[in-house]
From TrEMBL:
<feature type="transmembrane region" description="Helical">
    <location>
        <begin position="532"/>
        <end position="552"/>
    </location>
</feature>
<dbReference type="Pfam" id="PF04082">
    <property type="entry name" value="Fungal_trans"/>
</dbReference>
<dbReference type="GO" id="GO:0000981">
    <property type="term" value="F:DNA-binding transcription factor activity, RNA polymerase II-specific"/>
</dbReference>
<dbReference type="InterPro" id="IPR036864">
    <property type="entry name" value="Zn2-C6_fun-type_DNA-bd_sf"/>
</dbReference>
<feature type="compositionally biased region" description="Low complexity">
    <location>
        <begin position="80"/>
        <end position="98"/>
    </location>
</feature>
<feature type="compositionally biased region" description="Basic residues">
    <location>
        <begin position="58"/>
        <end position="67"/>
    </location>
</feature>
<keyword id="KW-0804">Transcription</keyword>
<dbReference type="GO" id="GO:0003677">
    <property type="term" value="F:DNA binding"/>
</dbReference>
<dbReference type="InterPro" id="IPR007219">
    <property type="entry name" value="XnlR_reg_dom"/>
</dbReference>
<dbReference type="InterPro" id="IPR001138">
    <property type="entry name" value="Zn2Cys6_DnaBD"/>
</dbReference>
<keyword id="KW-0805">Transcription regulation</keyword>
<keyword id="KW-0472">Membrane</keyword>
<feature type="domain" description="Zn(2)-C6 fungal-type">
    <location>
        <begin position="19"/>
        <end position="49"/>
    </location>
</feature>
<dbReference type="GO" id="GO:0006351">
    <property type="term" value="P:DNA-templated transcription"/>
</dbReference>
<dbReference type="GO" id="GO:0005634">
    <property type="term" value="C:nucleus"/>
</dbReference>
<feature type="region of interest" description="Disordered">
    <location>
        <begin position="58"/>
        <end position="98"/>
    </location>
</feature>
<dbReference type="Pfam" id="PF00172">
    <property type="entry name" value="Zn_clus"/>
</dbReference>
């Protein structure tokens, strides 16, 4: 039975009026009102006085008093008897490591609820996060069955690699490799995914087939791993070629088996292998493996000097050298793009640190990235290809890097509310400058309505996908930048008058999440099947943000509309799956759909409970 403040006073009349458990942990004033203090009443939580009474010793030493203060500030959530989720500690100099800021953590309106995303797109709520959900909904969340299988996709690939002996690494038929290489050269894929150097890859193929297998030559193994990786990536994008059957997953397993041996030398070929393996795993939804391979590729970028390379165009004998340097620089930008994207999705620090890299872009960059979609890959000379012909938008990648450093690094935990809000405004301005630089025909709009169109109908499929992904990245970056204000200490003092800034940021976070789902509804029929695992990340994080907002403000008139929007998500995600899923992917997608349905049920419970 929970004691009231009056009961406590009756039992211990010599003590000053006690703060409730929630106010005590936050070190904020508690008015002791019955049955709920002002803080607990405002947040709709139980106002408890369940912590044990402690009598102050008459002559406590300064050291003991300091020790008690440290214990009060550093107490973990797990040791609390209250079921309320604590906002971040009010101490800026001693943040709680368990609530470390990162893209991989969910902070929402002062609450740290767990991991905002997993490697497979399903959020992982902490035990305190589940307790908060139960308090707000009156219903126990049914999430446990959705957590265990998260790593299965990574595991089945790892098992494949472990059982592939070197003696069994037979190359595909030469005509198969030649067919895929010809396909690569004839499409815009080689302009935006320059995973191999067209001018020299034929030599790599010749070297791979130059010696009977097995071989101990590192150079030959390097070339063979490059062929395996190349086949898997091109097959992923373009599918099977008639009369050229190939098993892409087996090719990946063979390349991964060779990787430790070829890394004995730092070559452009080994960089291409690590990068292609990372791209394949990323597009397949195996972000953990992708992170490992991209990290390896980034170290090779440093070793080869590509992070500071500035190709200088020359004629005559120097032209071949320029081509090689230009290709190496394009590999750097590919690594940079995927490195920042993985950091954004997992909360892990990036491998390519901006302070150590030349990341300057030319003034005509916007013209360059537009030209890549209009170029004829068969007629263009690769010496004329810009080193910036890579997928996505490098300006967005630079903003991702800056957002991670300013808002979600360990150092950012030391910032005051004013410093954090200043950085949020600065990044918001940069994101807006990027937005208005985009062609007005496919420029993102923060307020996305349900009936909006995606892109002009005369755009090519590749250009359409680029525009769609830019929209999703814009909405996610908007939400990510403004969600950082959920760590502000103002959330622990809602009467302090500092809520305007953090409150408006929260609204922008939620609005960007709504726009993500509205845009998905408009763009779902234009999505390519190969992009499924890359795109799934965006609606999943948006769904979670909207769900948390429903629980935070169940009486808001918008809450029911938001719940109705969530109810459209399962069908939208089904429509995203335009390619045939493997059995393991199908099982995982069933878990994702069940998870969303549970969020919808809990959101409805929260609204009903608040009425």
């Amino acid at each position: 039975m929970t004691a009231s403040p009056q009961d406590v006073s009756a039992r211990a009349p010599a003590l000053k009026k006690r703060a409730c458990d929630s106010c005590y942990r936050r070190k904020i004033h508690c008015d002791g009102a019955n049955p709920h203090c002002n803080w607990c009443s405002h947040h709709g939580i139980a106002c408890t006085y369940a912590r044990p009474l402690k009598l102050r010793k008459p002559r406590a030493s300064n050291r003991k008093r300091s020790s008690r203060n440290q214990s009060a500030h550093g107490g973990s959530f797990a040791g609390s008897t209250s079921s309320h989720i604590d906002p971040p500690s009010s101490s800026a100099s001693s943040p709680d490591p368990s609530a470390a800021a990162s893209f991989g953590k969910l902070h929402f309106a002062g609450y740290q609820l767990g991991d905002i995303n997993s490697f497979q797109g399903i959020p992982l709520f902490s035990s305190d996060g589940r307790r908060w959900i139960q308090e707000r909904t009156g219903s126990k969340p049914a999430f446990p069955s959705l957590v265990a299988p998260l790593w299965q996709n990574e595991q089945h690939i790892a098992n494949q690699v472990a059982i592939a002996p070197i003696s069994g690494l037979a190359l595909p038929a030469r005509k198969v490799v030649d067919a895929y290489f010809q396909l690569f050269k004839s499409t815009t894929l080689n302009l935006v995914f320059p995973v191999v150097h067209i001018a020299s890859f034929q030599e790599t193929i010749d070297l791979a087939y130059s010696q009977p297998q097995p071989t101990e030559s590192i150079e030959v193994l390097d070339a063979q791993a490059c062929v395996f990786s190349f086949i898997s990536v091109i097959h992923f994008f373009e599918g099977s070629i008639e009369d050229a059957p190939v098993d892409p997953e087996l090719c990946v397993a063979k390349a991964q088996q060779l990787l430790p041996r070829i890394l004995l030398q730092s070559t452009v070929t080994s960089l291409q292998v690590a990068l292609m393996l990372g791209i394949y795993q990323m597009l397949s939804g195996h972000t953990q493996l992708a992170s490992i391979h991209i990290s390896c590729a980034c170290r090779l970028v440093y070793m080869l000097g590509a992070h500071v390379l500035r190709p200088i165009r020359t004629d005559g004998r120097g032209r071949d050298n320029y081509r090689a340097q230009n290709h190496l620089r394009r590999l750097f930008w590919l690594c940079y793009t995927f490195d920042k994207d993985i950091s954004l999705r997992t909360g892990q620090p990036p491998c390519l640190e901006d302070d150590y890299c030349d990341i300057s872009l030319p003034d005509n960059y916007d013209d360059i990235i537009t030209a890549r979609w209009d170029a004829d890959p068969m007629s263009i000379d690769d010496s004329e290809i810009s080193a910036l012909f890579v997928p996505g938008n490098l300006k967005l990648s630079l903003i991702k890097a800056k957002a991670g450093k300013l808002l979600y690094s360990a150092r950012s935990l030391q910032k005051s509310d004013a410093e954090l809000l200043r950085d949020v405004r600065e990044l918001d301005d940069e994101l807006e400058n990027w937005r208005i630089s985009v062609n007005k025909d496919w420029r993102p709009s923060l307020i996305q309505s349900g009936g909006a169109t995606t892109t002009p109908s005369d755009m090519t499929q590749s250009k359409t996908m680029d525009a769609i992904l830019s929209h999703f990245e814009y909405y996610y970056l908007m939400a990510t930048i403004h969600r950082a204000t959920s760590r502000c200490k103002a959330w622990a003092d809602v009467e302090g008058g500092d809520m305007d800034g953090v409150g408006s940021s929260l609204e922008l976070t939620v609005q960007a999440s709504r726009s993500t789902l509205f845009y998905l509804r408009a763009a779902v029929h234009s999505l390519l099947g190969q992009s499924f695992w890359m795109v799934l990340f965006y609606p999943m994080t948006a769904i979670l943000t909207i769900f948390c907002n429903i629980l935070l403000k169940p009486r808001d008139p918008q809450a029911q509309d938001d719940l109705d929007l969530l109810k459209t998500a399962p069908e939208l995600i089904k429509k995203m799956r335009t390619r045939r899923l493997t059995l393991k992917e199908f099982i995982h997608m069933k878990l994702v759909e069940d998870f969303i349905m549970e969020l919808i049920r809990l959101g409805d419970c929260a609204i009903q409970k608040a009425r």
